[in-house]
Amino acid sequence: MQKNKQLCTAIMTVGMLLMTACGSSSDEAGAIQNSNINSSNEVTTEEENNNDRVETDIQDNNEPNEKEDTSTSEPAEVEEEATTSLKEKYLQQLDDTKKEAEELEATDSSTYALKKVENDRWELWDELLNEIYGVLEEQLPAEEMSQLREEQRNWIKFRDDSALEASLKFKGGTQEHLEYVVVLANLTEKRCYELVKDFMK
Question: Are 117 and 175 part of one and the same domain?
Answer without folding.
Answer: yes
